């Protein structure tokens, strides 16, 4: 009898432990992650590149001897690798973006934006400045071997003031929104204005003077934007800069046309021996040959580093973009270049080719 009691007691003890374990397992399984954690999304893209330009130029000296001069590059390159974390906490969307370049990695974006109302949104952190239509465009969607020359030189991608390449970004606060909704539910007016350090990415304000940038554009018909932008500010050790941009874009039914003119007044970085004015213009079209698959493209691309034709660089570009699948595409481009900043006038004109493999994940 005693053995039976002991056996029953032991069995009940084991069953009790097992029940507690099962209960604990059920509790563990039933735990749910907060919604903001579930909303976090990891994404990214990479851009692999091959470039070449007139590898050799053959000339003759005064005695008639043939001279072959090496005159450019022929190289494979990793244009970009980006990793992004996006999420949302209530009405606030946030992003953290990192870029790999060579043997280093650095922070590109880190911002949060209150998005409760379409008419007024507030963004704070490090992000692209509120200047031009082209700068905020993803480089894969932009469609060409690089952003336009004037964008690279006057919007913070390697600025004439000496600011390190910042991808058009700075640290600050921005207010933006869409207004005047029509009967079809489409907004007709967009505004944006921001206050920034004026020094580029991952850099504190060095002169305690802020850059102020604003933009305003109309959207009179679907797919069309016509806008203007202004920028006033300074850079430590260089001085003031005042810029404006005039922009127009039509993008609809797989067709894209865009043109922008940018003017800059203000000193360049010490040692560059440039005047206090610069400007540039680009205009391009991307047209579907096979919808969503194959596109033809052409671009006029000009920048004058001291607002004179003797300082101009102009590229006449044409090419194709082929979408292999949703997240993979190949871009090919040829350009005839006229670069008057080269001292030897015999070398002003040359050929340039670019081939890229772009992927997203």
From TrEMBL:
Coiled coil: none annotated. Residues 1-19 form the signal peptide. Keywords: Signal. Pfam families: Porin_O_P (PF07396). It comes from the Bacteria. This is Porin. It comes from Xylanibacter brevis.
């Amino acid at each position: 009898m005693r053995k039976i009691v002991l056996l029953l007691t032991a069995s009940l003890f084991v069953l009790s432990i097992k029940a507690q374990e099962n209960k604990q397992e059920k509790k563990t399984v039933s735990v749910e992650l907060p919604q903001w954690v579930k909303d976090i999304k990891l994404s990214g893209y990479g851009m692999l590149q091959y470039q070449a330009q007139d590898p050799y130029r053959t000339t003759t000296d005064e005695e008639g001897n043939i001279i072959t001069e090496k005159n450019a590059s022929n190289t494979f390159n990793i244009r970009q690798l980006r990793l992004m974390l996006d999420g949302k906490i209530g009405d606030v969307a946030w992003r953290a973006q990192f870029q790999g370049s060579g043997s280093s990695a650095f922070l590109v974006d880190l911002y949060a934006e209150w998005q409760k109302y379409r008419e007024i949104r507030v963004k704070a952190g490090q992000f692209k400045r509120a200047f031009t239509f082209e700068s905020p465009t993803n480089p894969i969607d932009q469609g060409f071997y690089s952003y336009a020359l004037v964008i690279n030189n006057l919007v913070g991608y390697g600025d004439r003031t000496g600011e390190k390449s910042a991808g058009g970004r700075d640290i600050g606060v921005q207010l933006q929104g869409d207004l005047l909704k029509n009967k079809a539910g489409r907004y007709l007016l967009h505004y944006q204005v921001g206050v920034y350090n004026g020094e580029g990415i991952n850099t504190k304000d060095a002169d305690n003077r802020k850059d102020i940038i604003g933009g305003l554009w109309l959207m009179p018909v679907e797919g069309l934007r016509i806008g203007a932008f202004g920028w006033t500010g300074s850079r430590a050790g260089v001085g003031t800069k005042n810029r404006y941009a005039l922009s127009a874009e039509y993008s609809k039914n797989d067709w894209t046309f865009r043109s922008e003119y940018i003017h800059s007044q203000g000193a360049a970085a010490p040692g560059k021996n440039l005047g206090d004015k610069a400007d540039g213009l680009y205009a391009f079209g991307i047209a579907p040959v096979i919808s969503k698959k194959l596109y033809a493209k052409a671009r006029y691309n000009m920048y004058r580093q001291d607002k004179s034709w003797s300082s101009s660089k102009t590229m006449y570009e044409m090419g194709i973009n082929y979408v292999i699948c949703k997240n993979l595409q190949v871009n090919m481009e040829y350009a005839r270049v006229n670069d008057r900043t080269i001292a030897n006038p015999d070398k002003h004109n040359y050929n340039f080719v670019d081939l890229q493999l772009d992927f997203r994940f």
